[in-house]
Design a protein that fits this description.
Residues 2-232 form the ABC transporter domain. One of its GO terms (molecular function) is ATP binding. It comes from Mesobacillus jeotgali. The chain has helices at 48-56, 78-88, 104-114, 119-132, 148-160, 178-195, 206-209; strands spanning 2-13, 20-32, 37-41, 63-68, 71-72, 89-93, 166-170, 198-202, 214-219, 222-228. With 232 residues, it is α/β, with parallel strands linked by helices. The strands form 2 sheets. It has a 6-stranded mixed sheet with strand order 6-7-8-3-9-10. Strand 9 (214-219) and strand 10 form a beta hairpin. Helix 3 (104-114) crosses helix 4 (119-132) and helix 3 runs parallel beside helix 5. The longest helix has 18 residues, at 178-195. The structure holds adenosine-5'-triphosphate.
């Protein structure tokens, strides 16, 4: 579960002493329950990426609190957050963020290696996950030798390999054509239904927003609307 309470954040730009403060998030509060898909929409500049970066622990909030699975993460230091992230969170990005010099297999097994799991031990799990995303036949391909949809599946496999209870996604279909987009959305729904994975997804795209059990709208850094689509 993700619990966000009175979260506020701003950025300072410009030279020291003459900074301009850009308020981005203002008293944002909402929850994402276990097993839910929550989508966050809002115009460009409304603070969606900032919110996701705060939940991901890539930046710390100026005010307010973030709890993930009962742990207060908003005040954790970087080292602690890095350990927490690998146990609790998976990530899917618009730009896939694959390592170009590694094969699909090597990209997928990477989190296991970072976690200190021996190569031999991780082999079964890596093969299982590649099978699950339908990429067993492509495991020796480099990202440059795969289609956009296949690359996104590699990135999902990499997110799934450590069994994260929560996946955070930033415009997951932003680089895909509409047919591949639909396949990917169906796959996210399947992961949610069959494995109970909780998703928090930010998007511009109505089709993506619609897979949310709930859609939250950010407007000028505030939550202005929660549209309940269907029950989780
Ligand atoms: N590191 C930063 N330094 C200064 N200002 C920033 C920084 N990151 C974001 N901002 C500002 O914060 C505001 C919100 O940005 P954010 O990227 O969160 O919006 P967004 O809703 O994700 O937009 P988009 O849909 O275009 O990606 C913008 O005005 C942006 O210029």
């Amino acid at each position: 579960m993700i619990e966000i309470k009175d979260l506020s954040h701003d950025f300072k730009i410009g030279k020291k002493g003459r900074e301009t403060v850009i308020p981005v998030l203002k008293n944002v509060s909402f929850k994402v329950n276990n097993g839910e898909i929550v989508t966050i929409v809002g115009r460009s500049g409304s603070g969606k990426s900032t919110l996701l970066n705060l939940v991901s622990g890539f930046i710390r909030p100026k005010e307010g609190e973030i709890m993930i699975n009962g742990v207060k993460t908003s005040s954790m230091n970087e080292t602690k957050f890095a350990d927490f992230r690998i146990e609790h969170l998976g990530f899917i990005f618009q730009s896939f963020q694959l390592i170009p010099s590694m094969t699909a297999y090597q990209n997928v097994e990477l989190p296991l290696i970072l976690k200190g799991i021996k190569e031999e031990e991780g082999k079964i799990r890596t093969n299982e996950i590649l099978e699950m995303v339908g990429l067993s036949d492509y495991q020796d391909h480099y990202p440059g030798e795969l289609s956009g949809g296949q690359q996104q599946r590699v990135s999902i496999a990499r997110a799934l390999i450590v069994n994260p209870p929560i996946i955070l996604a930033d415009e997951p279909t932003g680089s895909l054509d509409s047919e591949t987009e639909e396949d990917l959305l169906n796959f996210i729904i399947k992961l949610n239904r069959e494995l109970g994975i909780t998703f928090l997804i930010i998007t511009h795209d109505d089709k993506v927003a619609q897979i949310g059990h709930r859609t939250i709208e950010l407007r000028d850094g505030k939550v202005v609307e929660e549209v309940y689509a269907n029950e989780a």
